[in-house]
TrEMBL record:
Species per Swiss-Prot/TrEMBL record: Tsukamurella spumae
Name assigned to this protein: Chaperone protein DnaJ
Annotated positions binding Zn(2+) 2: C164, C167, C190, C193
HAMAP family assigned to the protein according to its UniProt record, in alphabetical order: DnaJ (MF_01152)
CXXCXGXG motif repeats, residue ranges: 147-154, 164-171, 190-197, 204-211
Domain notes: The J domain is necessary and sufficient to stimulate DnaK ATPase activity. Zinc center 1 plays an important role in the autonomous, DnaK-independent chaperone activity of DnaJ. Zinc center 2 is essential for interaction with DnaK and for DnaJ activity.
Compartment(s): Cytoplasm
Pfam families: DnaJ (PF00226), DnaJ_C (PF01556), DnaJ_CXXCXGXG (PF00684)
Xref: SMART domains: DnaJ
Domain CR-type: 134-216
């Protein structure tokens, strides 16, 4: 069964070429593997690319409109030369679909010299604080802009383009070939005017008839708060100006996020590890931790804190793009045990250990601490009862 390429792109069967292109670009930006690595998205991206390949080609689109699939190489799929499924239109419809003019000789006509420009991509490195607070940056981009001498016309002075002498303005040339089916008329873009139907005999001295020139220009881009690694900011109409002075594409600024010295990011949640000496973990203490917006925060270390314990500071994480909401900051505690002791320190620890005669190395029960608790919790209880 032929695929419904119109449904894949989400357009009507009477959609214009520009509507098809816009629909494809919108879906491609959402499903491109660089943006969406999900396997299902990549499969949809292939389908969308196939649909655009077919519907942007007038010949292939005619095959679709007649119920066929130009990418299907099976017999009757129209992509492999089968003639079934044309609804009884005869060989004339077949030649119309495959050769662009068929037996009647009608062609596609000249393509416009003015065409839409390409999108452009530039990457920008930001640290975590800049991603959290947003930033404005001056960028220097090298793109094609409208030729200021001819204003996109491509001609020198008041001169005008003239009709192509080869195709006489048709934009294509036809030739007759013999085949087992008889004489077949085929059409192809005119090699003299590249399918435009006209030539510029007196091109602009600055742009050589292209209607645009390459130059470096400066612009300011505002990066919103909350962006992350791989996200793109779109600047509409700031990409490449099209041939013949056509409308410019878009400029995309892709964010590359540098690692933070202390904080680790997971979406809008931030994580930080606080190393706490064993005595402070046993007795309780305070520790200062960094944030990306609120400066340093003082966090209480509860008495009896164990390695792996954590505390959630709600609303102190990363902001969400275009939202007032903010994620959380999770403080993970890592209890530090002294690795080097002098004799006096070791003797003091032995005296302290003697206060806990039942405490010693042992295998812990599954599911957590033993019923009696660890040495830190016992130290807490001991000092609390003074």
């Amino acid at each position: 069964m032929a695929r419904d390429y119109y449904r894949i792109l989400g357009v009507d069967s009477k959609a214009s070429d520009q509507e098809i292109k816009r629909a494809y670009r919108k879906l491609a930006r959402e499903l491109h593997p660089d943006v969406n690595p999900d396997d299902a998205a990549q499969e949809k991206f292939r389908d969308v690319s196939d649909a655009y390949e077919v519907l942007s080609d007038p010949e292939k689109r005619r095959v679709v409109d007649m119920g066929g699939d130009p990418l299907d190489s099976s017999p009757g799929g129209f992509g492999g030369g089968g003639f079934s499924g044309f609804g009884g239109g005869g060989l004339g419809d077949v030649f119309e679909a495959f050769f662009g003019g068929g037996m009647g000789g009608g062609g596609r006509g000249p393509r416009g010299r003015v065409r839409e420009g390409n999108d452009a991509l530039i990457r920008m490195e930001l640290d975590l604080d800049e991603c959290a607070n947003g930033v404005s940056r001056e960028l220097t981009v090298d793109t094609a802009i409208l030729c200021d001498k001819c204003q996109g016309s491509g001609t020198e002075g008041d001169s005008k383009p003239s009709t192509c002498p080869t195709c006489h303005g048709a934009g294509e040339v036809q030739s007759v070939q013999r085949s087992f089916l008889g004489q077949v008329m085929t059409s192809r873009p005119c090699p003299t005017c590249a399918g435009v139907g006209e030539i510029i005999e007196n091109p602009c001295s600055k742009c050589s008839g292209d209607g645009r020139v390459r130059t470096r220009r400066n612009l300011t881009v505002k990066i919103p708060a909350g962006v992350g690694d791989g996200m793109r900011v779109r600047l509409a109409g700031q990409g490449e100006v099209g041939p013949g002075g056509g409308p410019a594409g878009d400029l995309y600024v892709e964010v590359t996020e540098r690692e933070h010295e202390f904080l680790t990011r997971d979406g809008s949640t931030l994580h930080v590890t606080a190393r706490v000496p064993m005595f402070d973990a046993a007795l309780g203490a305070e520790v200062s931790v960094p944030t990306v917006i609120d400066g340093e925060l003082t966090v209480e270390v509860p008495a009896g804190t164990q390695t792996g314990d954590s505390k959630v500071l709600r609303g102190h994480g990363m902001p969400q793009v275009n939202s007032q909401a903010r994620g959380n900051l999770v403080v993970h505690f890592d209890v530090a045990v002294p690795s080097r002791l002098d004799k006096k320190q070791a003797d003091k620890l032995r005296e302290l250990k003697a206060l806990f005669p039942d405490e010693g190395p042992h295998v812990a029960r599954r599911g957590g601490q033993d019923q009696g608790g660890g040495i830190f919790s016992r130290l807490r209880d001991t000092f609390a009862g003074r």
